[in-house]
Amino acid sequence: MAAPTPRSTELDPTYNARHLLVLEGLEAVRKRPGMYIGSTDSRGLMHCLWEIIDNAVDEALAGHGDRIDVVLHKDGSVEVKDRARGIPVDIEPKTKLSGVEVVFTKLHAGGKFGGGSYNASGGLHGVGASVVNALSARLDVEVDRGGTVWTTSFRRGVAGEFDGEGAVAGFTPAKGLRKAGRARKGVTGTRIRYWADRQIFTRDAAFNYDELVTRARQTSFLVPGLELVIRDERGDEVTEESFKHDGGISEFCEFLATDQKVTEVIRLTGTGNFTETVPMLDDAGHMTPTDVERDLEVDIAVRWGDGYETEVRSFVNIVATPKGGTHVAGFERALSKSFTNALDGTRLLKSGEEIIKDDVLEGLTSVVTVRLAEPQFDGQTKEVLGTPAASRIVAKVVQKELEAFLTSTKREHKAQARAVLEKVVAASRTRVAARQHRELQRRKTALESSALPAKLADCRS
After folding, report:
1. Which of 54, 232, 279, 443 qualifies as a cystine partner to 122, CB 3.0-4.6 A?
2. Nearest to 261 by CA among 301, 311, 303, 300
3. Distance (Å, rounded) from C-alpha 221 to C-alpha 46?
4. Domains of the chain, with CATH numbers?
5. Which SMART domains match (predicted)?
6. CB within 8 A of 42, min separation 6: which ones?
7. Closest CA to 275 of 388, 379, 396
8. Higher model confidence: residue 1 or residue 32?
9. What SS3 state is found at 196?
10. Spatial contact of 166 and 75, defined as CB atoms under 8 Å apart
11. d(Cα 186, Cα 64) in Å, to the nearest integer?
């Protein structure tokens, strides 16, 4: 029997235009989903849900809507309902599509690019809803607007109509919105239900109820007056929880703290502005670098306790930034400087002693929030704020407000300020003593391990 011919492992030496692949519209999302949602496991599945929820929260931030419902259905789908203005249903002039179709089928399209609809928002890249649509086997939208209920559906990003329930129902492509009935007078809002595409997501990817509840609670603190209702219908028994907090980040700070308080919650608030150069379309359709004036609002809650752990939560327009960014860098820099300046006028710190950031962070619980239009994030997952000016503005606000508290002569502030200054000085001395102890142990270990002559053995101690 003749030996099999070995397969050639050589690459095609030619390289020309026919080797190039052009991905149109939402094809790029399905081809490389990790670029948009980070991964295709449970983490990516939850990220898609955050995108839809954050759009509803942005409406509440803009003053529209006071309730958001999230329902995890038995069939694996998830539904998000709000009572806001409703996605626009009129025709967008450039694409000749309805506002709903633009939002769900066009990347980098939406109302958060400086059009005046949102002063501050969690979504800014204009890819959230369209990415979720592209990665869904089925997505249904209902919009109450202008006294009419408008509806449409999508299959993997393509608009059309299903002939039954669920993601496996028959589908006919079709453009445009359909009238589904009349909305009650004065009622507006949006309902989105989608089935994640199992061709994209891993088999074990699932919505995490506990993570969803934690995020809902967090958001209710960040947007006072907004009610978020989470309902899980997947198990034998239906589970439902509701969150609404009018106390804002002060209440959030108290919720996060686990130790006995040394100070009450202190609010550090202020604003700043900066100039940012951004490319903008001119009348001829060309991108021109343009200087734009931006406002940045700073609102921070801090509280010191008698514990040793540090808890710092940071947010930009209600979007959590777990890996920090320029706003957190400015906050931490100002903390050290404020305490150093405040201690200069006291006798608490002896000559030669100094405090560092870790001394101030010990026992600190804080919630750092900033609001600005079109923030710069590192990537679509928005875990790190990159806007350079945020560091300077946050540091300035924190230093001014915190120093005023630490040096206040008001009775209600003076005792707390003294207590936290003493705590920070004590932390500094403990740190120095611990370092000296380690150095002594290191030297002792080095001597004991060295080979000394017998007549010098007694000199080791």
Report:
1. 54
2. 303
3. 20
4. 27-246 (3.30.565.10), 250-430 (3.30.230.10)
5. HATPase_c, TOP2c
6. 204, 205, 206, 207, 208
7. 388
8. 32
9. strand
10. yes
11. 13
Q: Whole-angstrom Cα distance, residue 233 to residue 241?
A: 12
Q: Collect contacts of 231-236 with beta carbons under 8 A, ≥24 apart.
A: 231/69, 231/70, 231/71, 231/72, 232/72, 233/71, 233/72, 233/73, 233/74, 234/72, 234/73, 234/74
The SS3 assignment for 256 reads helix
DSSP string, 266-292: EEEEEEEEEEEEEEEE-TTS-EEEEEE
Nearest Cα residue to 399 out of 346, 330, 353: 330
Asked if 368 contacts 328 with a C-beta cutoff of 8 angstroms, the reply is: yes
Phi/psi of residue 111, nearest 5 degrees:
-100, 20
The answer to whether 359 and 335 have CB atoms below 8 angstroms apart is no
* Rounded Cα–Cα distance for residues 7 and 197 (Å): 36
Q: Which pLDDT score is estimated for 349?
A: 86
Q: Which two tokens stand for residue 94?
A: 């450039």
CA neighbor of 181 nearest in space, from 152, 207, 147 = 147
Handedness of CA 96, 140, 130, 18 (dihedral sign): negative
In 62-173, alpha helices (H)? 99-105, 128-134
| Position 453 confidence tier, pLDDT thresholds 50, 70, 90 | low
DSSP letter for 204, please.
T
User: What whole-number distance in Å separates Cα of residue 450 and Cα of residue 15?
Assistant: 66
Of the candidates 139, 142, 158, 140, the residue with the CA atom closest to the CA atom of residue 150 = 142
Residue type, 107: L
pLDDT (mean) for 350-354: 86
Residue 431: Cβ-neighbour burial (10 angstroms; 0-12, 13-18, 19+): middle
pTM of the model: 0.80
List the beta bridge partners of residue 153: 140, 160
Give, rounded to a whole angstrom, the gap between the first and last alpha carbons of the chain: 83
Instruction: Give rounded-to-5 percent helix, strand, coil for the chain.
Output: 35, 25, 40
Between 430 and 459, residue with greater pLDDT: 430
The answer for residues whose C-beta is within 8 angstroms of residue 4's C-beta and 6 or more apart is: none
Look at strands 67-72 and 78-82 and give their pairing. antiparallel
Give the separation between CA 66 and CA 279, rounded to whole angstroms.
35
- Of 34-38, 123-127, 211-215, highest mean pLDDT: 211-215
Looking at the chain, the whole-number percentage of residues with pLDDT higher than 70 is 86
Token pair of 115 as six digits: 């059009």
Q: Rounded distance, CA 94 to CA 91, Å? A: 9
Reduce the DSSP state of residue 182 to 3 states and report it: strand
What is the average pLDDT score of the chain?
88
